[in-house]
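Residues determine shape. Next comes a sample protein:
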Amino acid sequence: MADRASSSWAPRLGIVLALATLVGWSVLQRWSVLDGSPFPIGVDGYFYPVQLRSLLETGELQYPASPLAFYLLAPFAAATDPITGAKLGAAFLGALIALPAYGVGVELTRRPTREDHGRGPGLIAAALATTSAGSFYLSLEFVKNGIGLTVALTALWLVLRALATPTRRAAGLAIAGIAAALLTHKMAAGLVLGIAIPAALAEAHRHGKLRWRRVPPIAIGLGILVVIGLAMPQRFLSPKDLALIEALFTTDADWSLPVLANKLTLGREPLICAALSLAAATVLILERPTLKSRLLLISVVIQTVGELIGIGTMIVGDAWIITGGSVVLALGGMLLGRRVQTWPGSSGGRSGAGREVVAWSVIALGVVIALPWLDASNGQGLAVRLRVIAFVPMTCCGAIIARAVLRRIPIGRAALGAEIALVIVILRLHLGTPIEGRILTHPALIASAQAVRIPDGGVAVVQERHIAFMLAWYTRATISMRPEPIAPERRYRVMPLALIRIGSALDAALLEIRDDPTLPRVIGVHPLHPNGMVVVPEVTWRAILERLDVADRRRLEAWPTI
């Protein structure tokens, strides 16, 4: 009995030690980069200290945002300070993604009527998620998004467990996980809702529990989420966010699949994601128990490919041959699909339908991320955000592929999975710390922000988010990205040289206007250049615009923001 107990505990202890080591290593790796500068890192680096300072001092966030991420960061800030705490929280909560990634890998690859092969794929999923360049980048640039994905994968793991063991306790935990994702980040909310709802409906349909009387409560619940989103669109996922899709595509296909055009690739993870998504789709098709179910899945894939080609062709416009081909593929897929009436999955009333929906959902996400027509030119656009999280479907698809491989090897599957995970970590160590896309703040810019003084009642109107949050941190001044809501007498335009441009007409006008004693002064606060950063009262700003030509005046009156 003692030997059996020790043999059952040994693999579990090994898993715990492996995950703890993976998380600890990743925390140290992320912290080494975040601690490399005494200042916050990234475009939104100062946003998090500002929010944490306000939360600790007043109990409220200074700017409206999904709140849970900041409450998770607050203990780190309380133990240190808002800047250090934001960095510590980003490192720890970002590295913590190993745990839910392992859980998702285990549940996604579990089979209800066969031997469990999930431990090895779970470890591989954890290694892929934790060592990914995308996850690392989120800890540097989009901290709230990184925390949101840790929460989202946790929610997805709880949903998968509830699908496998449909008890009230499991369902309650799954609902709590989904609620946490909704409260953490919009992308986390969209990811979880987009996967969990279809999976739950498919599982309920498989067990014959999907009745019309259940439709009103579901509709009411979704309606409540829509109302909350409409009432607080800056805090929660809202129908207004659908407008982001309008700028998602471009007419120019880029088959290199950059995260950010000409600037950011993140280890070519979108390309890796595309390859693993196709491989995972092939694995699921080949694993179908009958020829009919395989034909149905093939038809779905053919139809999807045809529709994607058609979407791309409609975007590009004039390739009529590809259009015809996509129509033929789509029609062929639909006709073939109609001939097969069984949904692929476990036979009879067995569970597994919801899990398969989750698997195909992450594959579909990987396919969308790999579309070459995504517009990666806007650093704040939806396409870039999707490409950054390519590691999420990459992780899940990697687990699916690992299950197919490990189940055919007659040795310890968990041990082999651990060895493969270790190889992934060693390769990442060999490649070095993934600091691609890291944005450091120049000390001269910090000195300028510290020197800015906005009169009482005044509002700093700023074009760039990085500087806006920096001013909010150092000056505690009221900040606005747009001038329109602010009364003219309260506006103070704050501009850096990067937006003024050396040698431009605006640069010259800012220097000349200083000699006019009838106007409020232009205040230069940069230690190295008179126009390195300037504070311009609105009256003086209007006078400057009058000195510029029509084209420059119209561009500056529009007040373009980045």
